[in-house]
Structure formats: structure tokens, C-alpha cells
Write a structure and sequence with these properties.
By secondary structure, the protein is α+β, with helices and mostly antiparallel strands. The protein has 2 domains: 6-210, Beta-galactosidase, Chain A, domain 5; 219-599, Glycosyltransferase. Helices cover 34% and strands 19% of the residues. It has 14 helices and 28 strands. The strands form 9 sheets. The chain has an 8-stranded antiparallel beta sheet. The chain has a 4-stranded antiparallel beta sheet with strand order 1-2-3-4, with no helix packed on it. α3 (219-231) packs antiparallel against α13 (572-585), α11 (518-530) runs antiparallel to α12 (534-545) and α11 runs parallel beside α13. It is globular and about 75 Å long. The two termini are 49 Å apart. It comes from Sinomicrobium oceani. This is Glucoamylase (Glucan-1,4-alpha-glucosidase), GH15 family. Residues 217-582 form the GH15-like domain. GO terms for molecular function: hydrolase activity, hydrolyzing O-glycosyl compounds.
Length: 600
């Protein structure tokens, strides 16, 4: 594929990617970080897929059912038309819980005529490490691994199983279904039940979306991004994934290929802050419980990332038998970055804790635990803020005194002071105020470069970094501060290229980055908005939105030249920043709107 033209479906337990032609090319079951059952995304020869194949005369188009995560692919050839609805069931039960099995339903709706298609059903369990055997049984098609780790997968259908498996032509005359499940079903499966599951799932997503507020502009983009962030949250534990994939390269043919199916404290906390601000407080409460669960001891330092089931060891391995997306090797599972030290995570987490306590004050069920964590964060920051770290971009070799890390250490103390006041714990504040002042003065002294007239990537450096644009949103400086305005201008001059932003341009462990990190462009657009350059911000925002795929989804990176989406997909980072930017710019009245108002 030339671009990441995929839609994502999921049910807050796992997820799958469906191509714009209706091919299921990536899916891990039973959970997000389980081994893959389809991985054509990472190897188009041996990875495995589940495809709906039609003749060249068919026109194919794809969209989500509005305000849901149900993906519809429409196949038409004159009067012969059918629609494929892909989704993972998720809906509320009378007991109060959610029905969210490790299942994918592919509901095929007959629209008109006698459309013809074939099926390519080729599951490859356990990352296709060993052979997968697929056989027809009386009630289902079953796939099992032949050697190595045992695994199995079940396919139920209303259609002739042999015709499906042999790839024979099927003439559609009525609605049909496929149900792909990690588990063998107890009850008989039928088309009516699949349709009912689709309607229940549709109602669930419509209800969820209905709780998202409306804005003057960009509602469609905000809603799609919010739905995507919800899909990347793990309902049972409260973890939030960075993305649904592994090893999609930042640059084709290079080695910056990482597994993102984990919960980074930084990414997740930023997501939670945005989603909670949209009114979805249940996601925030579950995430805070996740944090409480992973820090049971008062002196336990926070890792930068965890498994979605609270795992603390995320051993990194390579799958050398897979050729990788676009031939980009290695394919990695696990992520060695879990051992890194990144001091910014404390401030980002503390910012979310403060947001939730402001919203709920002492009505939060876990308020006492959060106060204990607050004190623990202050202790860790006091002991370690003066030390270098790996930084937000996870440099794998040299540690430095990164400006962003220092600013977020300040944020940690600033928010802790605010939390102490809210909870009536003012006796703690006096010594914390001295620490807050000390960190602030250190940043103002060490992070500013007279030479480049900007806050720079690290102390003593003249290199620029997009992350320092967040100094204003986190409250360290005001938007009208001359030094912040100069920093925005310097970053525009040095890091902006063809309407997209470099994270930084100094060489890292793998050489000079050649793709734009999507979130950085959103940060820059927000900075333009904050310093009053609204017209330029709106123009850049509209251009950036045009680089999304056909469904409005973004990955981690964008190629500077081709504007091709690169990196893991869909990326939580990109979509949370899209929401923040869209909400800010929705308040801007353009010249065209002013003229319309005047005419009226």
C-alpha cells in the first residue's frame, strides 16, 4: 500500500485494521498486545489476511457510520451493490457491564442486484511464526498452529464454508455474515444475531458520541478523533495505548520501527486530559485507577510505560521472519524503552491528577490514594529534577538536561501545590513553593539561548525542539511573553518545512529524521493561535487535515515530500493534538465569517 489507507475497528479490548478495499490486514486477539492472527500489514506474503475480492468493474468506497466505530465498505457494479459492515461488538448489558468479546463481525448487506465476490480467508496465528492449519468443521472453520505455541481461531458464517475457504465465486442474494472469534461459541450463530449485535454496537457508539460537546467548527474531525482515542483505551484496566500497531516505520526502509501497543504514561495522560475535557469522565477515572494499581509502594518510581495489563517488564524481541511494512525491518514486539528514565512523565501525570481533582474535588473515590501519589511525585521530582534524562523523544544513548523535562518537573510541583490547596493540605505548600521557584529559575537561566533567541532543546544547546512549544499550554510562560513569541518564530524558521514540523533537526541515535512527527505540527499551529496569528494557524490546520487518510485518521508521522502517512497507526498523540487544536480554532472568527455577519 502506498499509504495507511485503513480504518480501525475495536471494542476497547482489541482492534483491527481494514483496508479501503475491505481487507482485514491487521488484528491481534484476544487483546491489543496479543500475537497477531492477521499481519499482512507487516508482510504481504506470509502475514495473513481476510479479504473480500470483487472484479475490476466494481467501484469501492468506504466510510464510518456517522458517530460510530462501525466501518462500511460499499461495493457497486451498476445494479449489483452490497455493503460490508465491519465492527467488534461492544454494548451495555442489563447487569451494567459491557459485552466486548474478542470477536470481529463482518456483516454483508445485500443492497441490489446479484453482486458476486470471492473470499480469501488466510489467518496466520502467532505472528505467522509457524504454519497455521485451517479446516472445516460442522459448525465453523477452525485455524490452529501446527507447532510452537498453540493457538486457535474460529470463523462462523451463514455462507457455504467450503466455497468461502476455497475462494469460489459467491453470488449474494440476501444478507450474510462472518463472525471471527478467538473463542468457540456455545450457541449457534446466525445472521439475525449478527445484525442485532451490529445495531446494539451502533447504539453504544451513538450514545457515547452524544456525550461529546459540539463546537462552532470541526465537529466531524473532533468526533472521529475522540472515537479513535476511545478505541485505544483498554476498558478493563484503564490503560491507554499509544497506537494499535507495531513496527510501522517512521521512514520507509529505516530501522525506527517500534511496538506502540503499550501504555506510555505521557501519551496516556495527555489523552485522558483531552477526553475528560470532552466530558468522558469514566475513561479518566479508570486511568487514574490504573495509575494507583501500578504504584502500590510509596517509594516506587514510575516507569515511562507499562503493558496494558499493568506489566512492568516489556522485553523487546525481533521477528526476523517478517519482512516488515514496505520492507522496513526489523519487526519488533515489546519495547526496551520501558527501562528509560524520562523526568517529564511526573508533571504530565500530575497535570491530569490536578484536572480531575479540580473537577470532582473530594468526591473522587480514590482521592486519598491520589494525594499519596501526589506527595510521592513531589518527593521523586525533588530528588531527581536536577539529573539528565532521555527526554520526550526517547534518545537511546546520551542523557541530557532537556528543557521539556525540566518544564514538566516544574509543572509537577506547581500542580501539586494547587492540589494541596484544594484538599486543605496547605501545611505542605511552603517547602514546595521554594522548590517550584528553584526549578523555574533554573529553566529560565539554563534553557534560553541568546544566540538563537529561543528556548532550546536542552541546557547549553542551540538546537531547537518542537516540544518547548508546550511551555505555554502548561502554564510556564504566557503567550504574550516576548521570549515565547521569539521561540515560536525561531522554531518556525528552523523546524517548519513545507507546512510540517520536524521534532528537531540535530542528529539522534539513528541520524537526521526525514519525516514530520504529526503532533509537532499541531503544537505549532496551536502556538500560532496563542500568539495571535490566527489566519496563518487556520490555513496550516486546514492543510494538515488534508493529509489525513480517507477516513480522517492520522498516524505518527508524515513524509515531508510525499505527505504519505508513516509510523504506527492510528496514533493517539496525533488525534489528541488534533482535538486540542480544533477546539481552539473553532473559536476564531475568520474574515469571511465577519463579512457574512456584516451582510446580514
Amino acid at each position: 500500500m502506498d499509504n495507511l489507507d485503513y480504518g480501525i475497528i475495536g471494542n476497547c479490548k482489541s482492534a483491527a485494521l481494514i483496508s479501503k478495499t475491505g481487507s482485514l490486514d491487521w488484528c491481534c486477539l484476544p487483546e491489543f498486545d496479543s500475537s497477531s492472527v492477521f499481519a499482512k500489514l507487516l508482510d504481504d506474503e506470509i502475514g495473513g489476511s481476510f479479504e473480500i475480492l470483487v472484479g475490476e468493474d466494481y467501484h469501492i468506497e468506504q466510510e464510518y457510520i456517522p458517530n460510530t466505530n462501525i466501518l462500511m465498505t460499499r461495493f457497486s457494479e451498476g445494479a449489483n451493490v452490497f455493503e460490508l459492515y465491519d465492527f467488534m461488538p461492544r454494548y451495555k448489558l442489563e447487569s451494567g457491564g459491557h459485552y466486548a468479546p474478542p470477536d470481529i463481525i463482518r456483516y454483508i448487506q445485500h443492497v441490489s442486484g446479484k453482486p458476486v465476490f470471492r473470499v480469501r480467508y488466510d489467518p496466520k496465528l502467532e505472528y505467522a511464526i509457524a504454519d497455521t492449519s485451517t479446516k472445516i468443521k460442522p459448525d465453523y472453520i477452525v485455524s490452529v498452529t501446527q507447532e510452537g505455541k498453540y493457538d486457535s481461531l474460529y470463523l462462523y458464517s451463514s455462507m457455504d464454508k467450503k466455497m468461502v475457504l476455497d475462494g469460489e465465486e459467491i453470488t449474494l442474494e440476501r444478507d450474510e455474515f462472518f463472525l471471527l472469534s478467538y473463542n468457540e461459541k456455545i450457541f449457534r450463530q446466525h445472521t439475525r444475531q449478527a445484525y442485532l449485535d451490529m445495531q446494539r454496537t451502533k447504539v453504544y457508539w451513538l450514545n457515547w458520541t452524544d456525550r461529546t460537546p459540539s463546537y462552532k467548527k470541526y465537529n466531524e474531525e473532533i468526533t472521529r478523533s475522540a472515537l479513535t482515542l476511545k478505541l485505544l483505551s483498554h476498558n478493563r484496566t484503564g490503560a491507554v495505548l499509544a497506537a494499535a500497531t507495531t513496527s510501522l516505520p517512521e521512514t520507509i526502509g529505516e530501522v525506527r520501527n517500534w511496538d506502540y501497543r503499550f501504555c506510555w504514561i505521557r501519551d496516556a495522560s495527555m489523552v485522558i486530559k483531552v477526553v475528560s475535557a470532552l466530558g468522558h469522565v469514566d475513561v479518566a477515572k479508570k486511568y487514574l485507577q490504573f495509575i494507583i494499581d501500578i504504584i502500590p509502594d510509596k517509594d516506587e518510581k514510575l516507569q515511562i510505560m507499562y503493558g496494558i495489563n499493568k506489566e512492568k517488564i516489556l522485553e523487546e524481541k525481533t521477528l526476523d521472519h517478517l519482512k516488515g511494512y514496505g520492507g522496513s525491518k526489523p519487526v519488533r514486539i515489546g519495547n526496551a524503552a520501558y527501562e528509560q528514565r524520562q523526568n517529564d512523565i511526573y508533571g504530565i501525570l500530575m497535570d491530569v491528577i490536578h484536572q480531575q481533582i479540580v473537577k470532582f474535588e473530594t468526591s473522587l473515590d480514590n482521592c486519598e490514594e491520589l494525594w499519596t501519589i501526589t506527595k510521592g511525585i513531589v518527593w521523586v521530582v525533588r530528588e531527581h529534577w536536577e539529573e539528565p534524562d532521555k527526554g520526550i523523544w526517547e534518545f537511546r544513548t546520551e542523557e541530557r538536561h532537556f528543557t521539556f523535562s525540566k518544564v514538566l518537573c516544574w509543572v509537577a510541583i506547581d500542580r501539586a501545590i494547587k492540589v494541596a490547596h484544594i484538599l486543605g493540605k496547605a501545611q505542605h505548600v511552603t517547602k514546595w513553593i521554594d522548590l517550584e521557584r528553584q526549578i523555574r529559575e533554573d529553566i529560565l537561566d539554563g534553557a534560553w539561548s541568546e544566540k538563537v533567541q529561543a528556548f532550546t532543546q536542552a541546557y547549553g544547546s542551540d538546537d531547537l525542539d518542537a516540544s518547548v512549544l508546550l511551555m505555554e499550554p502548561y502554564g510556564f510562560v504566557k503567550a504574550n511573553d516576548p521570549k515565547y513569541i521569539k521561540t515560536v518564530k525561531a522554531i518556525e524558521k528552523e523546524l517548519c518545512h513545507e507546512g510540517l514540523l520536524y521534532r528537531y533537526k540535530n542528529k539522534d541515535d539513528f541520524g537526521l529524521p526525514t519525516s514530520s512527527f504529526t503532533i509537532c505540527t499541531f503544537w505549532f499551529i496551536n502556538s500560532l493561535y496563542k500568539i495571535g496569528e490566527h489566519k496563518k494557524a487556520i490555513k496550516m490546520f486546514k492543510k494538515l487535515l488534508s493529509y489525513s487518510n480517507h477516513l480522517g485518521l492520522f498516524s505518527e508521522d508524515i513524509d515531508f515530500k510525499t505527505k504519505r502517512l508513516l509510523g504506527n497507526f492510528p496514533q493517539a498523540y496525533s488525534h489528541l493534538a488534533l482535538i486540542e487544536t480544533a477546539i481552539n480554532l473553532s473559536n476564531v472568527i475568520t474574515e469571511e465569517e465577519e463579512i457574512k455577519v456584516a451582510v446580514r
